[in-house]
Design brief:
single chain; 169 residues; mainly alpha; Rossmann fold; two-stranded parallel sheet; 8 helices; 53% helix; globular
Length: 169
């Protein structure tokens, strides 16, 4: 966990939703230099009962399967594998609208995008998806189709082969 992952934004959103009376649990996977600070923030916000810091997980897919929604709050990403994994697991994804994440999430189809650092927008996205099981299911299924059709190994290899053929022509 590093500052660029934006986990502190997620904690603020969870605190707001708890204050509204929404019962929710937040699983945070990963390790990093900011963990102690984030645990202190959760305590200060009064959400230690809602947030579990799970640390590094050798088998993260089991945890992704347990989620209703996957959230990635990063200020920057390459092509985030966690988003691909969540979509493949038929989970809707809320992600900050940054390069990499926006290439995977189709806003309003496979998940929801929000401006990085816009905690009220993140909170609204969480509120919306957590309150609508049918929307979660529809977005999760659309995400799975997107990954299977556009991000499989076969699709990747075909794309690389096409680029190499063009370069050699």
């Amino acid at each position: 966990m590093t500052t660029r992952k934006g986990v502190h934004h997620l904690l603020q959103a969870v605190a707001t939703l708890k204050g509204e009376g929404l019962a929710l649990s937040c699983l945070i996977l990963g390790e990093g230099p900011q963990r102690n600070e984030l645990e202190s923030t959760a305590k200060r916000l009064g959400i230690t009962g809602q947030v579990s810091f799970l640390g590094f997980q050798a088998q993260p897919l089991a945890w992704v399967q347990a989620m209703d929604v996957c959230v990635l709050c990063s200020s920057k990403e390459g092509l985030p594998r966690v988003v691909l994994e969540a979509m493949l697991a038929s989970k809707p994804v809320i992600g900050s609208d940054v390069t990499g994440t926006r290439e995977l999430i189709v806003h309003e189809e496979t998940g929801l995008l929000y401006g990085y650092g816009d905690v009220p927008a993140l909170t609204a996205a969480l509120r919306r998806l957590l309150g609508d099981a049918l929307l979660r299911r529809a977005m999760g299924e659309a995400g799975r189709r997107r990954v299977v059709e556009g991000f499989s190994i076969d699709t990747y290899v075909a794309g690389v082969a096409r680029v190499l053929e063009e370069a050699l022509a």
